[in-house]
Write a structure and sequence with these properties.
14 strands; alpha+beta
Length: 264
């Protein structure tokens, strides 16, 4: 299968095709010149498209997704030369924004102010407002964008803001939300069976949600009740919530698959 055919098979629309084409070009640049090459920040859905592309190319090593800290949601694709094993840490800049009215700004307020600087979305990674440090936001960005933010971001909404570049090694550990793990057994590791267990509903009801286009796996829509599921998958069900499949511990005594999951 040539490049055009593969992109047509993986992409659902022109935007996805353009994204995958650019990522493929960066991968080839890395292999051809044996230098590290990095994309802009990708949404979770875009990251899943990149995973599918690299899987289709049978590339298992020499690349990774990273966004400045271990649990980042928006991450870059890092393509590594044969002499490098870690991401290019200099490809991500971090800054701390301080505002003097604690709890006055939300993630949306900060993002809106950053976009008001006419930054491209791919130039911005995560925006973290830790609950344990009110009045502080941490912003991850490409280096040129971080420099611009420090120069131009003076307020968010009507709140005065000061910013400071921060070395990655000085970042605090961001607390993760506590989640209750649940366990269930399913007849098979296909979408309708697993979704029924997570939603505590019948398999036919789960199938209706899937075929109605209300279900995403790893932030991409899926309409096949037979779709296989894997450890680490994230399921979004419109109107029902989002679930993470954390483990597949094995089989029960009745030879049913055991799943471990949580609801966000």
């Amino acid at each position: 299968m040539d490049k055009r055919d593969l992109l047509d098979r993986l992409a659902a629309n022109g935007d996805e095709r353009l994204l995958l084409g650019r990522v493929w070009d960066k991968y080839e640049q890395c292999r051809r010149r044996n230098i590290p090459v990095v994309t802009g920040f990708l949404s979770p859905a875009e990251q899943e498209l990149v995973r599918r592309l690299m899987g289709a190319l049978d590339v298992r090593e020499g690349w990774l997704l990273w966004g400045g800290y271990d649990t980042a949601q928006r991450r870059q694709a890092h393509f590594l030369p044969d002499w490098q094993t870690e991401p290019d840490f200099e490809a991500v800049a971090a800054l701390r924004a301080t505002f003097y009215e604690p709890n006055s700004l939300t993630h949306r307020d900060v993002l809106g102010s950053l976009m008001g600087l006419e930054l491209r979305r791919e130039a911005l990674g995560d925006i973290v407002l830790p609950a344990d440090t009110p009045g502080t936001a941490y912003v991850f960005a490409l280096e040129p964008a971080a420099q611009l933010i420090c120069q131009e971001l003076l307020q968010a909404g009507r709140v005065e803001v000061t910013t400071q570049l921060l070395p990655l090694e000085e970042l605090p550990e961001f607390p993760q939300a506590e989640r209750t793990l649940q366990t269930a057994t399913v007849s098979s590791l296909r979408l309708d069976a697993v979704l029924a267990a997570m939603l505590h509903c019948s398999r036919s009801m789960a199938a209706e949600l899937i075929t109605a286009g209300r279900v995403e796996i790893n932030h991409l829509p899926v309409e096949s009740v037979h779709a296989p599921v894997y450890e680490g998958d994230v399921f979004t069900v419109r109107g029902k919530g989002r679930f993470g499949l954390t483990a597949l511990p094995g089989k029960s005594r009745k030879d049913r698959a055991i799943i471990e999951f949580f609801q966000y």
